[in-house]
Amino acid sequence: MQKAEFIWMNGKLVPWDEARVHVLTHALHYGTGVFEGIRCYETSRGPAVFRLADHVKRMADSAKIYLMKLPYTEEQLSDAVIETIRANKLRECYIRPIAYYGYGEMGLNPLKNPVDVAIATYPWGTYLGEEGLRKGVKCKISSWCRLDPRVLPPLAKATANYLNSVLAKIEALQAGCEEAIVLSTNGTVCEGPGENLFLVKDGVLVTPWVAAGPLQGVTMASVKRIAGDLGIPVTEREVLREELFLADEAFFTGTAAEVTPIREIDGRTVGNGARGPITEKLQSKFFEIVRGKDPAYERWLTFVQA
C-alpha cells in the first residue's frame, strides 16, 4: 500500500501513521462497521470524485440498517472526503470512508459504544490489473455462497459481510484464477466477492436481480444508465449458473474493478475469450465519464478544487 500524508479521523486530519484504534475497539471483535469504496479521477479540471453523494448516501443507509447513528451528516462526510483529498494533494486516488463502533464496552450489544468515523485516501491502481481491463480475467464459481438475507442484510455494505468475500477470493486465487463468482443460497448467480456481475446474451445486458442478494452497486447503476443511453437493452432477473457458460460476454463492475471483462469461468471460455464489443463500448464510455470527457454526465462528478 502506498501511504498518503493524512487520514481524517473523527473530524480532524491526523498523520497517516498516527491513525490508530484501541485493541478493544468493538468493530475489531464483532465486525460492527460500515464502509464505502469511492474513486477520484484526474480530469482536465483537476481531480473529481465519481458519484460522491451516492456513495455517502449508501453508507448512511448501511448504518441505518445496523441501527448505527452516524455523528456526521452526509454533507459533512462529503466535505470531509474532499478535505482529505486536498490535504494529501492527490490527483487520483481510492477513497475509503468507514464508520464503526469504537472502544467502550465489550459484548454483543454495540449501542452504548461511540461511533467513530475515518476517511483514508491513497493511490491505488486497477484492482484486477491493467491486463484484466484489456483482456479479461479468469474466474471460478466459489463453493462459498453469498449471504442469505435471513443471515445478514446484503444491502448493507458492512465489514462483517466481507469475511464471506475473503473466503471466496482466497479460494479463487488458490485455484489459479483472478476472481471468484458467488451464487445465492438458491444456486442462482449473485455477484463477485467485491463486484457486481453482468452478462451479455443476444445483445441484451443481464444482471442478477436484487432478490439474489447482490450489493446494489453505484458503478452497477451507472453502467445500467449508460447502457440505456447507448440503446443497449438491460434487464435484471434471476440468472442460472449455466447461463454464464453460454454468455456472449461477461464483465464485473465496481469501484475497485471499474469495468473488467471476464474471459473464462470454470474452464469454459466466455464468448470469444476476450473483451466483447458491448463490454468494450460500456468500458470506454465509463472511463470517458469518470475523466470528465462527457459533459452529459458531469453531474456525477464532484470536483476537488473549488
Q: How are the elements arranged and paired?
A:
Blueprint: E1 6-9, E2 12-15, H1 26-30, E3 33-35, E4 38-43, E5 46-50, H2 52-65, H3 74-88, E6 93-101, E7 115-122, H4 130-135, E8 137-141, H5 162-174, E9 179-183, E10 189-191, E11 196-201, E12 204-208, H6 218-229, E13 234-237, H7 241-245, E14 249-254, E15 258-265, E16 268-269, H8 277-290, E17 301-303
Parallel strand pairs: 8-9, 8-15, 12-13
Antiparallel strand pairs: 1-2, 1-7, 3-6, 4-5, 4-6, 5-17, 6-7, 9-10, 11-12, 11-14, 14-15, 15-16
In short:
With 306 residues, this protein is α+β, with helices and mostly antiparallel strands. It has helices at 26-30, 52-65, 74-88, 130-135, 162-174, 218-229, 241-245, 277-290; strands at residues 6-9, 12-15, 33-35, 38-43, 46-50, 93-101, 115-122, 137-141, 179-183, 189-191, 196-201, 204-208, 234-237, 249-254, 258-265, 268-269, 301-303. It has two domains: 6-122, Aminotransferase class 4, branched-chain amino acid transferase, N-terminal domain (D-amino Acid Aminotransferase, Chain A, domain 1); 130-290, D-amino Acid Aminotransferase, Chain A, domain 2 (Alpha-Beta Barrel).
Describe the fold and architecture:
This protein folds into two domains: 6-122, 2-Layer Sandwich (D-amino Acid Aminotransferase, Chain A, domain 1); 130-290, D-amino Acid Aminotransferase, Chain A, domain 2 (Alpha-Beta Barrel), CATH 3.20.10.10. The longest helix is centred in the N-terminal third of the chain and has 15 residues, at 74-88. The model has no long low-confidence stretch (mean pLDDT 97). Helix 2 (52-65) crosses helix 3. Helices cover 27% and strands 28% of the residues. It has 306 residues and is an alpha+beta fold. The strands form two sheets. Strands 8, 9, 10, 11, 12, 13, 14, 15 and 16 form a nine-stranded mixed beta sheet that branches.
